[in-house]
User: Which sequence fits this backbone?
């Protein structure tokens, strides 16, 4: 690491000397040093280590771009004192007497550039957000934590994907060039919007829309994902708040129940007759079920139209 030497073209030198001799703005320039600067850069300018106040925008731009340190290594610490900064200004053709520097010194540290498995796993997790229907269980990557001498970026490419695993290539780039390739394996589960109980549901209770909500959970064969299968159903056994609903936990609240007496309506060609029958199976509204005529024993085909009420369709 070294302090920068001036490299100002001759024409610019003449312009700066002219400003120095004839412009009054230098007396209004205040450079307030920061007490501590932590950076990822190897090269710092005056604006990186201080706050510059001046009425002249062009002069502000010039001062801001003056290099004060270059070649700072990762993890290296450096201290710049007021007299060193004045010397740097003088080397860049700025009259030290025309500026006011507040602060005696600034401590500078370049951050260490760390490449770790955690950083790569975080990047992979971000990359896999393109798959909203998976839940990551584990990420494996062969890498030990290490320090790099230059900043890096990561690029991830998918090689292949199975029902449980995703195989990735992780490229480490510096200055846009690939310097290394790592392989990563991701184990995952598929997830889906599953019906869960918003509160404790008691046995015999009829489930309403307010009793349930959707939550992303690992997919299992007996979890219910369709709200229409749940709303209006009867709770068969106690369901705790937050529990996923399964088909074994509920039973439909049939308007017509097996072995119950029902009203059978015959309505054809202006003739309407009502008789009593016995339902031979459970039936939901709109469903066609078998009903036994309680008087004749004849089996009828009927459509469920309401509570304990069916419409005659035909006989067997």
Assistant:
């Amino acid at each position: 690491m070294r302090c920068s030497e001036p490299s100002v073209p001759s024409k610019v030198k003449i312009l700066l000397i002219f400003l120095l001799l004839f412009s009054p703005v230098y007396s209004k320039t205040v450079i307030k040093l920061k007490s501590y600067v932590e950076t990822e850069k190897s090269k710092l300018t005056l604006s990186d280590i201080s706050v510059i106040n001046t009425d002249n925008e062009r002069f502000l731009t010039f001062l801001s771009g003056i290099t004060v340190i270059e070649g700072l290594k990762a993890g290296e610490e450096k201290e710049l004192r007021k007299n060193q900064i004045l010397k740097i200004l003088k080397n860049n053709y700025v009259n030290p007497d025309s500026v006011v520097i507040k602060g005696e010194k600034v401590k500078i540290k370049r951050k260490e550039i760390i490449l770790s498995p955690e950083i790569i796993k975080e990047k992979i997790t971000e990359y896999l957000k393109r798959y909203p229907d998976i839940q990551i269980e584990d990420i494996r990557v062969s890498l030990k934590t290490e320090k790099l001498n230059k900043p890096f970026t990561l690029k991830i490419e998918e090689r292949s994907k199975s029902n449980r695993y995703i195989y990735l290539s992780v490229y480490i780039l510096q200055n846009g060039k690939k310097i290394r390739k790592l392989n990563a394996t991701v184990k995952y589960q598929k997830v889906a919007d599953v019906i869960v109980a918003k509160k404790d549901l008691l046995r015999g209770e009829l489930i309403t829309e307010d009793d349930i909500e959707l939550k992303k959970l690992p997919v299992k064969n007996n979890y219910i994902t369709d709200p229409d299968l749940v709303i209006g159903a009867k709770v068969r056994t106690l369901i705790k708040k937050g529990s996923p609903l399964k088909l074994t936990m509920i039973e439909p609240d049939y308007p017509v129940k097996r072995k119950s007496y029902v009203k059978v309506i015959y309505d054809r060609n202006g003739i309407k007759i009502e008789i009593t029958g016995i339902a031979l199976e459970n039936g939901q509204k709109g469903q066609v079920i078998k009903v036994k005529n309680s008087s004749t024993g004849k089996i009828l085909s009927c459509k469920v139209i309401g509570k304990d009420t069916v419409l005659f369709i035909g006989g067997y």
